[in-house]
Amino acid sequence: MGAAAVDAWWLEADALERHGDGLSSAEARARLAADGPNTLETTATAALPLRFLARFRNPLVLVLLGASALSALTGDLFGFVIIAVMVLLSVSLDFAQEVRAQRVAERLRRSVGLRARVRRDGREVEVLAEEVVRGDVLLIAAGDLVAADARVLWAQDCFMQQSSLTGEPYPVEKHAGARPAGPGVEEAVNAVFMGTSVISGAARVRVERAGRRTRMGAVSASLLREPPPTAFELGTRRFGLLILRLTLLLVACVLLLNLLGQKPWPEAFLFAIALAVGLTPELLPMVVSVTLAVGALRMSRQGVVVRRLAAMQDLGSMDVLCTDKTGTLTEARIHLERHVDAAGRDSDRVLQLAWLNSHFETGLRSPMDEAILAHEQLAEGDWRKVDEVPFDFERRRVSVLLDDGQQRLLVVKGAVEEIVALCASVEAEGAAVALDDAARAGLLALHDEFAAQGFRVLGIASKAVARDHPHAVVGDETALCFTGFAAFLDPPKASAADALRLLAQRGVEVKVVTGDNEQVTRHVCASLGLEVRGVMSGAQMADMDDAALRFAAARATLFVRVDPDQKRRVIEALKAEGRVVGYLGDGINDAPPLHAADVSISVQGAADIARESSHMILLRQDLHVLHYGVLEGRRTFGNVMKYIMMGTSSNFGNMFSMAAASVALPFLPMLPAQVLLNNMLYDISELPIPADRVDEQELRRPRRWDMRFIRDFMWVVGPVSSLFDFLTFWVLLHWLQAGEALFRTGWFVESLATQVLVIFVIRTRGNPLASRPDPRLAAAALAVVALALVLPLTPAAAWFGLVAPPAGFYAVLVLMTFAYLLLVETVKRLFYRLHPLAP
Fold first, then answer.
1. DSSP designation for 147
2. CA–CA dist 435, 342 (Å, integer)
3. In terms of Cα–Cα distance, which of 619, 617, 612, 579 is closest to 598?
4. Has 324 been annotated as catalytic?
5. Where does residue 483 rank: exposed (0-12), middle (13-18), buried (19+ CB within 10 A)?
């Protein structure tokens, strides 16, 4: 259920009688039976075994399973076991992540697993929160967690903390009978919502929505939807389809042509199966898993918990980062930044009066009071409190009556508009000056300047009263003397500006998606050096369809006053434009966009649901780890792509060459056992790829799965490899006069050497001699080539139909191998220089 499906019922006229008697027990039971329990649970999901089997629908998984079965048919039990184990490990990892949404919803359910005080049968009773029904009258007080969405019937100084839903760090006072200014949760001053908490005061409320019909229920429902596929998942799926088509086409052609050539069908069939096994990238799951695990281990050393390994790939491909403001870019702690007089000059007098007011206040102490008291430790001196007029929503101010033994002073602090309206004079140079209309307009203009800079501003005023003035009442708040302004900010994190700058240098665009207002958000962006190119509000977004939002979202930097479902729509709109999207958030209201993003990131102090919805959790306040993570993700992506580019170019070329030779030659160019051994040794040489180094140029810009680029690389390098293979066939047959057994031996050694050694060419876009591989990769490759050279000279050669070559045979093969590597290097450089998609 999205936010669009959750009606703004608090805007409707309240047609029901306002009373506090609530329901009868019979009515409550009937509604519980009709509407169901007040929980966030959804309908039953498929059984675990069925959900596990659903993971095998991926085309690449199907190709690998087919290759595993074919290996078993040819008697290659080792190949069968290796491929099957790789596939099962990969599928199991995906399945473990699939159940996260269910756990998140369960965490949400536990967060509201409480008891509630309700009016039943005309008296107060306590029931389980899940038994609360529509129409119940709830009694809430300070410290309570609200059990359902409800309309306020009566309230006394009732302040709610609802930042988990709105992103606003400031408490909101609730009261009965008010008409909200708009449909947003932050504007619903006559309503309370499930999962929010009462900071102070008390209220009697009538339940309007319960269970999954609540605002929090909408969040829960969005998390239980199947998340859209990430960029990494789409890439592997498309790659699997490409390999599947190539394998089926090549195998069918080989089998048909060999049968038409009247070659023995059992041998032709086994050879076709061996080619199919050779074409499948059976090591890909292992390369991906190990590469991701290595990246996750490095991230853990930087204070980042990677909860979903595939997110490492997506982090490297990410080209746009959407982030909430409060708690992610900012400290989520309000600070007193300025205390100035009526002329805008710094003033200790303003700070002193603000501090005394907050210090002696005994009612609701807001975050701004805490900020004033934390700003500087002042002494109360001889001042003592005489009386107080507490803060309330209508007045929007608090007054304390103080006495220091020499004078009695009323100190008032509150909304600037209200304070200025009550003032008859203004303090200037230590004296009170009459406040005329021009001066009053000047004060309001100064307030607007602060507001435009993102400050939350309070006005400070005072009034001397008679020493025998016994009490403070609302009527005393007249003819005040305006003293100055206290301006507050939720400051950006110290590391945020530099981290965002580094991300921009690496090609990652940053967008801010917040429930806060435009002025505050603009100020934070200015503080962080983030250029604002366009602003979109939640109200504007509500009138847009998905197509219009896709166009607008790509051009906006700030999204303000947006609800959780609108945040999700922003993420999905950007993804629909082909962007790889990350999201950084920490509140309940961030759970839907976290769930929808390609890579979702939260912080240690985030709401439970935000942490559970995320792929990564930052354990430190330093946002530089985001930049480090992007680089690590690109290293991960680079190493996976090395294996893929190898498998779709040189390996494909060799398999195509063997397929063509099987038709042109009077004998098979390799026996099935030789093909499988060749494939196994090649795989062994590629095992260290996850630990390989990645060139700096590969880390500069985001990279993603691009099947056109991979396919074009295959169609360029693969045929070059095949043409060189045909040249090798000519040399073997006409220059070295190789018979059937020697031909197979020479081709076995040559094809394996070229396949393995070409990794040093393909692993870098630059000069292979200038880019050093990891020593383990170099050692494995050279060891496999050495084994291929030595194997025909050992007794084990007979097991695979290999024979010892004559003198000078290897010298020719070595020269041809180096010529092949030089040719591929030349073609590779031309390809990267001319291809339009080459980064």
1. -
2. 11
3. 579
4. yes
5. buried
The residues that bridge with 485 in the sheet, in sequence order, are: 340, 459
Residues recorded for the chain? 839
Q: How far apart are CA 759 and CA 778, in angstroms?
A: 9
Say how many CA atoms lie within 13 Å of 277 toward its Cβ. 34
Strands 115-120 and 149-161: unpaired
Distances (CA, A) of 679 to 92, 281, 316, 486, 659: 25, 10, 30, 73, 15
As a whole number of angstroms, the distance between CA 470 and CA 461 comes to: 20
Tokens of 798: 């007979």
Q: Of 754, 746, 744, 678, give the one whose Cα is nearest residue 720.
A: 754
Mention every residue, 6+ apart, whose C-beta is less than 8 A from residue 96: none
Residue 548: other Cβ atoms inside 10 A: 13
Cα–Cα dist 673/675, whole Å: 5
Cα gap 336→484, rounded to integer Å: 14
pLDDT tens digits, 629-688:
999 989 988 888 888 887 777 667 766 777 777 777 788 777 767 776 787 788 788 888
485-513 per-position pLDDT tens digit:
999 988 888 888 999 999 999 999 999 99
Three-state DSSP class for residue 493: coil
372, 336 contact by CB (below 8 A):
yes
Q: Taking Cα atoms as reference points, which of 484, 397, 480, 395 lies closest to residue 446?
A: 484
| Residue of 314, 324, 369, 725 marked active site | 324
Q: pLDDT tens digit string along 243-276?
A: 777 777 777 777 777 777 666 666 666 666 666 6
Report yes or no: 454 and 398 within 8 Å, Cβ to Cβ. Answer: no
